[in-house]
Hints:
The protein is an alpha+beta fold.
Amino acid sequence: MIRKVLRLVGLTLIVAVALVAAVIPESRLALSADGERFPATLTIRTEEGVTSFLSYEKTLLKAIDTAGIIIGDNHRLSLPEETVLEPGGLYDVTIRSMDSVSLTWGGYSLETVGLFSSMSDLLDRSGFSRLEPEGGILSGDDSADDESYVLSYVEIEKKLIHQPEEIPFSSVTLEDSTLYAGKTTVKVAGKTGIRNLIYEETYEDGIFVSSVQIGSEVVREPVQEVILKGTKPKPTYAPINYRTLSSTVRNSLNKIKDYLNPQGGNKSYQNFSDNGNGTITIDGRTFRYNSVKKRTLTMYDGLECCLQGGCHTPAINHKTFSGVPAQRGLVATFGVKANGRYTGTVLPMGTILFVEGYGLGVVADIHGVSGNPDLVDLCFDPGDCRNGVATIGKRVRRVYILNFN
C-alpha cells in the first residue's frame, strides 16, 4: 500500500513538471537556471521622451549606457548611478538636466550648475535675495530653454558733487546832478556771487556711468554795481590875460572900495535884499546882477597862509594870484592849468561879486581846492582868521555876479 502511494506522488510531480514545461518557453527555462542573467525592466524618462527596455547589466549606469542613452556632465538621475539591478526588478528612472547658472557680482563672474525649482529658489540659495535693493540692481532671467539662469548684481553708488560757479553781478547807472557831465564814478562796487551746482554721480561696481544736475544752491548773492553818471553842466573857463591881470583887478577893487564897510566880523555891509527883478539892494544902494548861484564858501587871509606854510620868517602877508596883496574885498576862484601854468578860471579875473554874509568882492586869486569848481575862497585882512574876526569857516551861500558899471 505504501509503495502505491509513493508511486502516485512521484507520478503527480512528473505531471506537474510536464505542465510547467508546456507553459514556460524554452529560453525562459534556460534563464531560470542562471539567475544572474535574469533581466531587469527599466523605464527611463528624459526631456525627449520615455524609453523602456530589459537589461542584463548589473548596474543602472551600465544599463543606460548599453541602451545608448547619453548622460552628460550636467545630467542628474533620480536613482544613484551605481544602483545594482536585481534580476526581474522594475526600475523607473528620471534623467534631468541641471540648470546652468551665471552669477555676476561686483565685476566677477562665476559659472555653476544646479537644480532649482524657480528663480526665487535660485535667489534664496545664492544669498542674493538678502541684498538691499537700494544698494544696487539685482536682475535674474530664465533663458528660453529653461535650463539656464543669468543672475547678476550691480552695486550702485550715488555721490553728490557740489561744483562752485560764479554768479555775475548786474550793473545800474544812475544820474547824479552833483557830478559834471561826462564824469562817472562807482558808488557801489559790483561783486560776483557764488552758487553750487549739485550733481548726482552714479557709479556701477565702482565705475562712473553718469552725472545729472539735480539742483543748485546760492552760497553768496552777487552785489549789484552802482555807477553814478554826472549831469551837472561843465563849467566854462575864462582865459587869463596875464598882461592886464593886475590892472584889471585893481580897477575893480577901486570901484567897490567905498562900499566896503567892515562891521567888525565877516560882513562888510549892514543890510541886503534881493528885489526879485534882477537887482539887489545893499545898504540902500541897488545893483543889477547877471546871475546868482549858491556856492560853497571858505575863508583865508594872506598872513595866515604864510604862517601855516612857514615860508617866511617873520611871516608876511602874501599877494594874490593877480599880484594884489591879500585883503578884505578879494576872493579866490577855481583855476585850470595847462602844461603847469594856469590858463583859465571859473569866474573871470576882476569880476565883481556880492557874497551873502560877506559883502562885495573882486575875483583876484586862485584857491587850491581842486575838487569843487563852484567854491569861492573869501579873503580877509591880515590876521583876521587867527584873531577871530573871520568866522565863516565853511558854508553855502548865494553869490551874485554883478553888472557893475
